[in-house]
Amino acid sequence: MGRFRREMYEDYARQHFGEYVDDPNYNAAYKRVKRLKRFYSHLKIFIIVNIIIIVSSLTRDKSAGLLVMDLSGLTEWHTYSTAFFWGIGLLAHALSVFGTDWFFGSDWEKRKIQKYMEKDAANKNKWE
Fold first, then answer.
1. Percentage of residues in the chain with pLDDT exceeding 90?
2. Angle (deg, nearest 10), helices 3-15 and 24-56
3. In terms of pTM, does the model score above 0.70?
4. What is the DSSP letter of 10?
C-alpha cells in the first residue's frame, strides 16, 4: 500500500474513530477516484503533446529574412496521425473508466424489452 493511500486511509479511520477501518465502500470509491485521476492525466498529456506536434508542423520560412508561418504542414496526415491513433487508445481508456453505461444504462435492457413487448402487443391487436 502506498504511503499516500495509507495516510489517507488512516485519516479516514481516525475521523470515524476506527469504526470503518475495513470499509469496502471507501476502498471502491478510492479506486474509482484514482482511475478517474489517471484518465484526466492521460487526457491532459494527450492534449499537450498533440498541440506541440501541430505547432511544430508549422514551418518557418527564414529565406526571405522574415518570420513567415507556412501552413502547409497542417494539411499533412502525419501531423494528425499521432492524435488519431492515440485518440483511439484514449477512447478505450475512457470506456474502461466510465464504463459502458454511456451507451447502455443500467435500465436500458428493461426499457428495450418493455418497448418491444408494447410493440408486439400493438401488432397483435391490430389484426383482431
1. 25
2. 140
3. no
4. H
Residue pair 12/20 in contact by the 8 Å Cβ criterion: yes
Q: Say what the pLDDT of residue 121 is.
A: 77
What is the rounded distance in angstroms from the CA atom of residue 31 to the CA atom of residue 97? 10
Nearest 5°: the CA angle 44, 47, 52 is 125
Beta carbons of 59 and 73 less than 8 angstroms apart: yes
Burial state string for 39-74 with b = 16 or more CB within 10 A and e = fewer than 16: beebeeebeeebeebeeebeeeeeeeeeeeeeeeee
* Percent of the chain residues past pLDDT 70, beyond the cut: 68
Residue 107: CB atoms within 10 Å? 9
With beta carbons less than 8 A apart as the criterion, state whether 58 and 70 touch: yes
| Phi, then psi, of 68 in degrees rounded to 5 | -110, 130
Q: Kindly tell me the number of DSSP H helices and DSSP E strands found in the chain.
A: 4, 2
